[in-house]
Design goal:
Blueprint lengths: L8 E8 L2 E9 L5 H18 L12
Antiparallel strand pairs: 1-2
């Protein structure tokens, strides 16, 4: 992702429950493409383990 203002960063886009979502993986200058892909695979394995791609779904509701 290259914003109009600021530094470029790696972003993963996915669809969950019919809604398009996105998650930043890190700044382009600090992370190579291979590292960004590896990070996404690690996150994907973790999300599959808890059966959710929404970080907010892991927060307990009061």
């Amino acid at each position: 992702m290259i914003p109009k203002a600021g530094a470029a960063y790696w972003m993963c886009r996915y669809t969950f429950a019919g809604k398009r979502r996105g998650m930043s993986l890190g700044k382009y200058s600090h992370l190579s493409l291979a590292e960004a892909r590896e990070q996404w695979l690690r996150l994907r394995r973790r999300f599959v383990a808890v059966k959710t791609l929404l970080p907010s779904a892991n927060v307990k509701k009061k």
